[in-house]
Amino acid sequence: MLKLLRARNFALMEDLTIAFDRGLTVITGETGAGKSIIVEAIASLCGERMDDISIRSNRDFAEITGVFETTPLILKRLRESGIHVDGDLIIRRKVERGKRQSSYINDQIVSIGLLRDLTREMVDLIGQYENQSLFNPKNHLSLLDSYAGIGELKRVYTTVFHEYRSLEKRLKSLMETVKQADEKIDYLKFQINEIEKAHVQPQEEEQLSAEKNLLLSSEKRSTLAGNLVTVLYDREDSVVENLYTIQKILDELTTLDPHLNEIKGRMESVISTAEDMYREVSSYYNKIEFSQERLDHVLERLDVINKIKKKYGKTLEEVADYLTTVEKELSSIE
């Protein structure tokens, strides 16, 4: 029960004190007399917002104090909140201009949430149009629950339902984590399989590139090597034939002047070198061949290597390192 209400500098009130007796108290007055302000003051005691608008003009603060009789339930709630009250319960609300509002119970500062919870057990504020809430469909379930007296059952159900929702959300999160892990495993396996299926070998790219160049230049190499064979041996006035002619001349000269024997020996070495060159070039020329099938295979392998490098590393060494990394990652996940 509210025993006393005091409002200082609140709205139009400078300093108002009202003492309430047991039973029904009726406050009457003309329009503008301040009846609604008294109700607003009581509402402020119950936790309604107070701000600069609540302060009387030319004043720096507004303060409302209410004295209530306590009940065993209220005393229990106060003790649970660490507030000890002997006798009446005194609630005080204060706001200073430009500052935040503050709330006190027996001069101990409290949160607005605690104040609202306590006063909800002591005060019911009902406006003149409160009955219209009956027509709002949003209120029908709560009114029906209240009439049925299942408030505690509803509270327990709400708690269990929220726990269920929390567990459901957690389960969904875990399932999503498992799904992501499975997708990661599939992706890693795909990468490992793609790299291993390519069967790339160290130095393979360099070897294939060199072979490609040889295959593409086979026609030109054959022409040049054939010309060299012809010049060295296979035509009249060839290099080897001219060297033999020179040797015959040196043979005659050495019979006349033995001092030329050294030059003759060197000529024999030149002829031997020229003949060796002819045999090697001729062998090279005979081995030159072009295979479109082999060229297609080389180009296909180079394309595979380039695709692997584009996805997994700039070089085949980097590709090999990446393969080792994903194999370790897959092993750690599985």
From TrEMBL:
Residues 164-198 form a coiled coil. Keywords: ATP-binding, Coiled coil, DNA damage, DNA repair, Nucleotide-binding. Residues 5-214 form the Rad50/SbcC-type AAA domain. InterPro entries: DNA_recomb/repair_RecN (IPR004604), P-loop_NTPase (IPR027417), Rad50/SbcC_AAA (IPR038729). It comes from the Bacteria. Transmembrane segments: none annotated. This is DNA repair protein RecN. The lineage of its organism: Bacteria, Bacteria division TA06.
